[in-house]
Every structure is written in C-alpha cells, then in structure tokens.
Specification:
- The complex is a heterodimer of chains A (338) and B (323).
- Chain A contains 15 helices and 6 strands.
- Chain A has helices at 6-10, 13-28, 45-68, 76-92, 97-120, 126-145, 155-162, 170-187, 191-200, 202-207, 212-238, 250-260, 272-292, 299-314, 316-326, and strands spanning 36-38, 41-43, 150-151, 164-165, 168-169, 240-241.
- In chain A, strand 4 and strand 5 form a beta hairpin.
- Chain B folds into 2 domains: 2-132 and 273-300, Response regulator (Rossmann fold, 3-Layer(aba) Sandwich); 134-271, Rossmann fold, CATH 3.40.50.2300.
- Chain B has 11 helices and 12 strands.
- In chain B, the strands form 2 sheets. A 6-stranded parallel β-sheet of chain B has the order 2-1-3-4-5-11, with helices on both faces.
- The two termini of chain B are 29 Å apart.
- Classes of the chains: A mainly alpha (338), B alpha/beta (323).
- Chains A and B meet through helix 3, helix 11 and helix 13 of A and strand 7, helix 7 and helix 8 of B.
Chain lengths: 338, 323
C-alpha cells in the first residue's frame, strides 16, 4: 500500500467539508473556536463537537468494518439502548460498576454475534438481519428497564459519560483510543485486507482461502461491541438509561458518517479515521444549528442541505468538473498523489 | 380552542363540587378501560393511578392494553360491549375512525369517557372527555416565572418538545402568553430537545456557550421535566448552579424533577396529572346514579409545584407509579 503524504490526506474533501462547516459555525457564532480551561478540563463549543460526536464516531468505527464487508448494521442504536439499560439496571440494584460495565459490553458483543450468525450461517441479507435486532433490541431494552428511565449515581459509570482525562472529555478519549487501536489492527495486520477482500467478492475471498464466515462473525461482533461502548457513554452522560430514546436513529447517523468518510456501501476499500471525520462533520453541523439561533423547524432542512452538498462535492463527477474548471492549465505544485 | 378555554373554569368548579358527592356510588360496577399501551413513563403512571382509583372506589375495572394499535382498542371496546360493562374509559390512540364502535356502545346504552386525548367524532357519541389543557400548562409556567423574577430583567432559553408535536406547540404558545405582559421577561433562544434528557443536555450546552458561558441566561423553560433534568446537568457542567444562577421551570411533574427540587436544582414544575380517571369516575358516578350529564370537556388542573410543596413527599408518592 502506498504511503500517503500528510498534505494529500488533508486535501481530502472530508477535511475541506469539516473546515467549511466549522468556518460557517464561526461566522454564526464568533466564540466557536474559543476554548477555556474550567474545572480541570477544556471547555468550549469545539470540545462539545468532539464530545457529542464521540458516540456516533464510535458507532461509525464498528459500522465501517461491517460496511467494508458489503454489509450494513441497522441495530447499533438499539444495541446502545440495551447496553445502557443492562449497566444502569445492574448498578442501580447494587452491582458494582466494575462488574456491570463488562457485562454490558458483553451484551453488545452477543447482540453483534447474533447479527453475524444471521448473516453468515442463515445467509440473511445484512439489512434484514440487523433490522430484526433494530426493532426487537429496543423492545428488549424497554423490558430490561421496565419502560421507565433507570437513573443511577454510580461514579464510575457516570465517569465514562461525563469524566475527563488530561482535560479531554472521557467520551473523546475513548473514541480516540478505539480509533487508533482499530486502525492499527486493520492496517498493521492483514485484517483490513481480508475485510476488503470479503467485501469486494465473498466467494472469491473464500476460494482464496479466507475464512469469510469467521471474519464476518468477528466484524459484526465488533460493531455490537462498539455500540455497547457508545451506549455506556450515553447512559453515563445523563446518569440514566432511557430505553425509548438512547441511540434512537443513531444507526443512520453512523451509516451517514461512514458514507461521508468515503467508504462505499458496496464494500471494499474503507477508512476508519475518515469515518470518524464524517461523524465530526455531522456533529459540527448539529452544534452549529444549536448555537446559530435558527428556529428548530429549520434543523432538518439545513442538515440535509449541507449533507447533499458534501456528497455532491465528493462525487467523482463533481471532482472532475471542479478540476477541469478551476485548475485547467496551471496545476498547483502541491497537488501530488491525489 | 375557545370552547375549551371557556369550559375550563366551569369544568374545574364542577369537578370540585362533585367530589365525594356520591360516595361509593360506583362500588361493584364493572367498567372497562382501554389503554393505549405503555409508551412513556407518564402513560404507565396513568394506568397505575387508574387502577388505584378503581380499587379505592370499589370499581371492577376490566383493563385492556392496546399496544399502540387502534384495531386492538376497537376489539377491546367490542369485548366490553359484549360483556355488558356499565361504562367504558378509553385513551384513544388516534383521533379518527371511532364513529362505528362508539355508535355500537351508544346503542348498547354504555357511556364512554375519553381520557387525555380528544377524537374527531360527533360529540353525542361519548359522555365526556377528560384532558389537560396544554396551553394552560405553559401559561402557568410562564406566570410563575414572571411572578418570581418580579421586575428584574430576565432572559429565558426554551427547550422545546419534538417539532410539530401538539404539546410542543401548545406549551410554547401558553408560556408566551404567560410572559406576554411582562416586558422584562423575554425568550432569547429556543430549540428542540425532542423531549429527551440527552438532547436537553446537549441543547443546553449549546445555549450556555452561545450566551457567554450562561452569564446572560436567567432561566430555562423546558417543555417536559426530562429535558429539564438534562439541562440541569449541563448547567452544572458549565460551573453554574441550577436553581439559583439559572432558574429551571418545566412541565409534567415526574419523580426525578422532585428529586432535583430536593437538591435545590429545580424551581418549578407544572403537573400533567396522571389522574385522568378520578374526574372520569366522578362524572360516571353522577351520570349513572343521578342521571346528571357532565360537561363535555373536563379539563384537569394544571397544578404548580415548587420546592415549598414538599418535593421529597411528592417524589416518594410518585416513585412507585411507574414513571
């Protein structure tokens, strides 16, 4: 694999989009980039973008791997609700968080494994297989919480959602660590290549000697595990598990983040850091809408407008048109491998 | 809307007068109750309060959970009619499509009382409807704020419910009416928090940043208590004291807002009572035993609770209701 230069990476349309969204935020609210130090942590709108974007970024890390295998996982939002519900019910009935948290993560892993079994052994199309858990999972979470919001005051569990490490909010730290570890795992080993191979052509990959079933089970389980982490963060954030609303529609945000990051829904080539950037674009937009003072009736219209614009700019056709129109005769010296 | 407003006062007085007038009048009577389901904590509380009220009055309550489906409710109503119940309570899941089954009930001579939601059907098909006035809830919250800040300048941020939902529209309108007369109180920012804690917290974080760390905000008005609970956490995270630096007023009166009041972090909440069945049973009592026709629209009280109303006691009283 060819090593990309930093410049060419930063010239990707995703970074341009993120910069543009943040620039618009700054125009709407001049204090957007102001970061202050308060109560032992950084404090500011930019930190909010990272902090609020972390759950979707974590979901997107897991979903990227699934999408790279030409699958999709619609259940991650419901799995968030399940893991939050498991952890909250356990700590509120006196179980120590050191036991409740691993069990909640295990619950997510089991949910993901279930999806994997449906996809590999029963050969159900991923969108249907995970739709089952998307609907049933939320019901399961409601059963666990008995339909009410289960609140808790456990310090460790709320630390996951609201704590800070080295001045950064804990969700940001978790997302960052997960992103680095996952990226290393797929790029410093053959794992990424195997995932891409299965995504491009599952039969061909199997004939080439790749155990595609095992790989798919692993990838779906990992997505469930990521969702469980996100669920713990969201529950810890409000010190309560809200089975009706935790993670609601976030699976769609996660898929959008993956697509904004440039991974094709048809499987194959993928990039986990770029999916995280995609999640940040979405959150920068959400935060921008909140601080802009627009009437809430405009929220979805503004959001969809910006997303359409970004996706159009990312399309190969638009890229060609732009380079034909704006850089026809004098190619800038900086443009290298792109 | 005008009819509702006009009738609100009369209904309130009527409800007060009829209290205990026909003691034990419903004892032993069989009454069917078709509930929507249990989509929210409030709904669960309504169910348990209805059961408790029925038990208190000695009513033999037949309960049917429709799991958010109108067809189940229609089936349940037909079942009640076949059983020959003496009255039917129904919390209708949707507003249309009730004429046929209500006509069947009317032909069987069974009075029907609608709980907490209205329907689009001729008024003679049901005895009465018991519901809250969402505009009034907002107005009570607004008037409390105006009365509390006096003539001090007060900039309010508003956490709206889900865009386009009727409680969000009505509670916003009511609050604006409540503060309309006070020129010193104004809404400076308004965004939707989708009635959830986490969105309430996220939106409040944004408001605090946008208003100079919260220095310019005097009060937060949330369309439900859950968003207020989220906002309280955001205010604390910003290093301010909710309840004193920023006043917190919301609607619903769920247990957790009373817990926040005990901690001094919330200032007022307007109750959306889960006791819709109480006035309904009173109306049925009067109708079945004395033939008195009740008002067509009974409006429940929108009671204001502040930290001086024994929040600990309210919390304990409500905790077991299933919120």
């Amino acid at each position: 694999m060819k090593r990309q230069t930093l410049t060419s990476t930063l010239l990707r349309p995703q970074f341009a989009a993120l910069a543009a969204v943040m620039f618009i935020n700054w125009l709407l609210f001049p204090g957007f980039f102001t970061i202050t130090w308060q109560d032992g942590r950084f404090f500011g709108s930019l930190i909010d973008v990272l902090n609020r974007g972390a759950p979707v970024a974590i979901l997107a890390i897991g979903v990227t791997a699934v999408i790279a295998t030409k699958g999709v996982d619609l259940s991650v939002g419901a799995v968030m609700a399940i893991s939050g519900a498991v952890a909250a019910v356990m700590v509120s009935t006196g179980t120590p968080a050191t036991i409740a948290i691993p069990i909640a993560l295990l619950a997510g892993l089991v949910c993901g494994f279930w999806n994997g079994v449906l996809v590999t052994y029963l050969d159900i199309q991923p969108i249907i297989a995970t739709l089952v858990l998307m609907v049933a999972g939320r019901g399961l979470a409601q059963l666990i919480t008995e339909g009410s919001i289960v609140t808790f005051s456990d310090p460790l569990l709320s630390y996951i959602g609201t704590g800070a490490l080295l001045g950064l909010p804990m969700p940001v730290v978790i997302a960052l660590v997960l992103m680095i570890v996952t990226t290393l795992a797929v790029r410093r080993t053959a794992l990424g290549l195997l995932i891409e191979a299965v995504g491009v052509n599952r039969s061909a990959a199997r004939f080439a000697g790749i155990s595609s079933r095992l790989l798919l089970l692993l990838v779906y389980s990992f997505a469930g595990f990521c969702a469980a982490i996100a669920g713990l963060i969201v529950a810890g954030d409000i010190r309560g598990a809200d089975a009706n609303n935790a993670g609601l529609w976030l699976e769609l945000d996660a898929i959008l983040a993956v697509v904004l990051g440039g991974t094709s829904l048809l499987g194959g080539r993928f990039s986990i850091p770029m999916s995280v950037v995609g999640a940040l674009i979405i959150q920068a937009m959400n935060t921008g809408i909140l601080i802009s003072g627009f009437s809430p009736q405009f929220n979805l219209v503004v959001k969809s407008g910006v997303i359409i614009l970004i996706l159009v700019l990312q399309s190969p056709q638009a890229g060609q048109w732009i380079s034909r129109r704006f850089v026809p005769t004098t190619p800038p010296a900086k443009r290298s491998a792109e | 809307m005008f009819t509702i407003k006009k009738l609100a006062l009369a209904a309130g007085i009527g409800a007060l007068l009829s209290t205990a007038a026909y003691a034990d009048g419903l004892s032993g009577k069989v009454i069917g109750f078709s509930q929507i389901g249990s989509e929210s904590g409030w709904r669960a509380a309504e169910t348990s309060v209805t059961r408790a009220e029925a038990e208190r009055l000695g009513v033999d309550l037949k309960f049917a959970d429709a799991q958010q489906k109108q067809e189940n409710q229609i089936k349940a109503l037909r079942g009640f009619i076949a059983q020959g119940v003496e009255a039917i309570l129904i919390a209708p899941v949707v507003s249309t499509g009730w004429e046929e089954v209500l006509t069947e009930a009317k032909d069987a001579g069974i009075p029907v009382v609608l709980l907490d939601r209205g329907i689009d059907a001729p008024e003679d098909l049901y005895l009465t409807s018991v519901a809250s006035d969402q505009v009034k809830e907002g107005r009570v919250a607004g008037e409390w704020l105006v009365g509390t800040v006096g003539d001090k300048e007060c900039k309010v941020v508003e956490l709206q419910g889900t865009v386009g939902s009727s409680p969000a529209i009505n509670r916003k309108q009511g609050f604006e009416e409540g503060i309309a007369a006070a020129t010193n109180v104004s809404i400076i920012r308004s965004q939707t928090g989708d009635f959830t804690r986490s969105k309430g917290k996220e939106v409040m974080e944004g408001f605090l940043k946008a208003e100079g760390g919260g220095a310019g905000i005097c009060a937060v008005y949330a369309h439900n208590d859950d968003m207020a609970v989220g906002a309280i956490q955001a205010i604390k995270d910003a290093g301010l004291k909710p309840g004193s630096d920023i006043l917190v007023v919301s609607i619903d009166a769920v247990p957790d807002i009373f817990a926040a009041m005990v901690a001094g972090e919330a200032n007022a909440t307007v109750e959306l009572t889960p006791n819709m069945a109480g006035p309904a049973f009173e109306a049925l009592d009067a109708f079945l035993n004395a033939g008195t026709l009740p008002e067509k629209f009974i409006i429940t009280e929108s009671k204001l609770y502040t930290p001086s109303d024994d929040p600990q006691g309210e919390y304990d009283r409500r905790k077991g209701l299933g919120y």
